[in-house]
Write a structure and sequence with these properties.
Elements: E1 4-11, E2 15-27, E3 30-32, E4 41-53, E5 57-70, E6 76-91, E7 94-110, H1 111-115, E8 124-135, E9 145-156, E10 159-166, E11 169-176
Antiparallel strand pairs: 1-2, 2-3, 2-4, 4-5, 5-6, 6-7, 7-8, 8-9, 9-10, 10-11
């Protein structure tokens, strides 16, 4: 198995961070050292963990991606994967947290559109994005908050359908692909 990795690790007086990312290329069931015209899939992964501390702020951060691209060198490329980001800590004695996630399920692009300057829109699949923000009290002019929302986008050949939800509220709309 061949994995192309990058690794970054540093620490300063008030912060530290570790980041790792990797690519893995495949030809059928076999792993490849480098991609070529026989490559059928690749995976991309990233992970970042960090901390920040000073006199009035303490924060930890985690971020990671895991994506798989299949159908390389075919008529359709399919993307599946997730991204997750989390931040937690205190700012001037106020508890703060932020969460973000994105899941791509069977997002399909036509290779001809990507390779030949087409429109580059997905023709099928679903993307779900979730966000949560919490602060226990006001920070400067920003009021305390406890917010969460979910955006679901379902793609088709002609455009997409979107639904944004927050608590009891929701908004839905459809969009047709066209010139930007």
């Amino acid at each position: 198995m061949c994995i192309r990795d990058s690794y970054l690790d540093f620490a300063l007086d008030s912060s530290s961070m570790v980041m790792v990312d990797s690519f893995r290329f495949e030809q059928g069931d076999a792993y490849q050292e480098l991609p070529d015209s026989n490559t059928t899939a690749f995976e991309y992964r990233t992970r970042l963990d960090g901390e920040y501390n000073n006199a009035d702020t303490s924060m930890s951060v985690t971020y990671h991606d895991a994506y798989r691209f299949t159908g390389i060198n075919t008529d359709e490329i399919t993307v599946n994967g997730t991204s997750i980001a989390e931040q937690e800590g205190n700012i001037s004695q106020v508890e703060v947290s932020f969460g973000f996630s994105c899941e791509l399920s069977d997002i399909v692009f036509l290779t001809q559109d990507i390779n030949y300057e087409g429109d580059n829109y997905p023709v099928s699949g679903t993307a779900v994005v979730e966000v949560e923000i919490y602060t226990s009290d006001q920070i400067d002019d920003i009021p305390a908050m406890n917010i969460s929302w979910t955006l679901t986008v379902t793609f088709n050949e002609n455009g997409y359908h979107a639904r944004l939800e927050s608590d009891e509220n929701y908004w839905e709309w459809d969009e047709t692909w066209g010139p930007v």
